[in-house]
Amino acid sequence: MKNPYALGEKEREELILKYLPLVKSIAFTIKRHLPDSVDVRDLIGYGIIGLINAIDKLNRDKNFESYLKIRIRGAIYDYLRSLDFGSRNVREKEKRIKKALEELSKKLGREPTDEEIAQHLGEDAEQLRRDIYRISFSYILNLDEVFNGEEGRGYEEVLGSRGEGVEERVIRKDLEEKLKEAVNSLSERERLVIQLIFYEELPLKDVAEILGCSISRVSQIKGEAIRKLRDKLKL
């Protein structure tokens, strides 16, 4: 069936050009949470694909800009999933870092620095930071999948939806309540980390400076918080 909201070629091109800055803004925001090995130009490229797909499926009954943001992020996340951020190797490295944190904390009587953890693991600090950023971002993808239903919609799309359907409003309201309850069940430090990373969109390095701890510790707190949220939000 032909889309009743289908655009003419000129209007379509104008919309794509109009929202290119939005794609770049989202790509650079996501890039702050990723290791240097991920090229922001790739994120922008996949974001543009998401933008074009969203425009081609334009539905004027939706909050269009919110819909675009969701589709752009979704396309970028799909690309990052293809890089296997949640692979077994990432999880094994996460366990090794956690064990090193525990062992060094007992030995030193304080939280160790990233450099001390790297030395304990027998690697350089830069490699450790790359691994931590991979681990950290894998949890963003992980949380996005908690709400995935038969339609394949992530939590951001469901909660960001402003559709007028009664069923959709009821679902969104229920999920908002579940999310609020789940966040309130976290410790004060876990809530702060979640707020700084997901709402303030700060990179791990900045969060570590605010909390006065290592990037490794921030990643660990974030991982524990998201595991708790996943348990609370399972449908």
Structure explained in plain terms:
The chain has 235 residues and is mostly helical. It folds into 2 domains: 1-83, Rna Polymerase Sigma Factor, Chain: A (Orthogonal Bundle); 86-235, Butyryl-CoA Dehydrogenase, subunit A, domain 3, CATH 1.20.140. Helices cover 73% and strands 0% of the residues. The chain has 11 helices and no strands. It has helices at residues 9-31, 40-56, 64-82, 88-108, 114-121, 125-144, 155-160, 166-184, 188-199, 204-211, 215-233. It is globular, with a radius of gyration of 20 Å. The two termini are 33 Å apart.
Task: Summarize this structure as a short list of keywords or feature phrases.
235 residues, Butyryl-CoA Dehydrogenase, subunit A, domain 3, 11 helices, mainly alpha, 2 domains, Rna Polymerase Sigma Factor, Chain: A, 73% helix
Oligomer: single chain
Distance separating the two termini = 33 Å
How many helices in DSSP terms? Answer: 11
Q: State the secondary-structure class.
A: mainly alpha
CATH homologous superfamily label of the largest domain: PhyR, sigma-like (SL) domain
